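Data deposition worksheet. Section B asks for the primary sequence of the deposited chain exactly as it was used as input, without tags or linkers unless they were present during the calculation. Section C holds the resulting structure in token form. Section D is free text for depositor observations; keep each observation to a single sentence. Incomplete worksheets are returned to the depositor.
Section A, Depositor: J.P.
Section B:
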Amino acid sequence: EGVTERDGKLPVCPSGGLLGVGNPIAATMGMKTGELFWQLTGQAGKRQIPHEVHTGVAQAWGDLMQYGCVVVMSA
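Section C:
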């Protein structure tokens, strides 16, 4: 139904996620946080969500689930 597509009501993973950018392992959360910042500031280029973005969330875990992190950002 397109809800989670880039131009949908609730866009998910406009960068393509780890399949789209590779798996940087320990730097995964940095990549995801950077994407949130770019989306919120309108600097995501061809990945930019086409409507105004106010809030984003990113989640990452690593090393066989020995750590996890969730970041919520808003503009």
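Section D:
Residues 17-74 form one domain.
The chain has two helices and two strands.
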